[in-house]
Amino acid sequence: MKTPSQNQRAHLALLATAFIWGLNYTISKYLLTGIFTPLQLIFLRLLGGMICFYIFQKLFVHEKVARKDLIMLAFLGIIGFGLNQTLFYAGLAFTSPVDASILHVINPILVLIFSSLLIGEKVTFRKTGGILLGSSGALLLIFYSSGVSFSGNHALGNLMIILNMLCYALYLVLIKPLTGKYKTATILKWVSLFGFIFIIPFSIKPALQIHFSAISLNTWLWVLYVIVMNTFIAYFLVNYALERVMPSVVSYYTYLQPFIAAAASVTVGTGSITWTKILAASLIFSGVALVNTGSKNEQSTESKPAPD
Questions:
Q1: How confident is the model at residue 121 (pLDDT cuts 50, 70, 90)?
Q2: What are phi and psi of 261, to 5 degrees?
Q3: 305 in a domain, yes or no?
Q4: Is there a domain that residue 307 lies in?
């Protein structure tokens, strides 16, 4: 059997990440509904994620980081873990999963702009066309599925989600050069550490007010999902993919998240397959194919693959 190429492995990693994050909107909204405050949940997530990354790196990877790179890793920890995740949870507490998923559609556009300005990624017709196809499919799926509200507290929540996307887009672009110098585990150990240190002054008091005994086992299992799957596994897969493809390709998989959420609803019997959903899926996957075709041609010149 033919083994997958590094490019194919990167796309498989991104597909898995899209599935993990596609389920996260509903799970996180549940945890923020009378169980945890945003700062309590972000404290648990970053603390748990930091511990996972630290243990994994200590067990399997042994390398040192140059002092000059620690400054960049600290900045990436603040924007990619601290600010990014805090803004997401704070925004989700005010807005809805539908609104959040709509606003996340702008992520690939922001990444392409930052990539072009900061690391010289080429803006091609294929990438632009793929982004347009994917965004139209994602928006069609989301708007058809349910009504969208931007009134009241939704405005504040949506603003936080937009800022969350700005931070994550910048994180994806600025971390790309470091993926050629250090192992994924090393990078994530440091960025998660700096991100956790950044949020401690804001979250330690709310965290100490958590009534642990009042939280059910099922709820703790969802918290475990947020820490292990949504943080440790998902960020690991994203950085693995960044070693092999450009940031714009990584960010494109944001468009699959609402599709995966809709597919999950069909699987459990709470949704149905319609022609609108089939059209939306066709647009999203056509965009994936278009972006992927362009990325293969650029791989050898723009992003030298890291050794397995």
A1: confident
A2: -60, -40
A3: no
A4: no
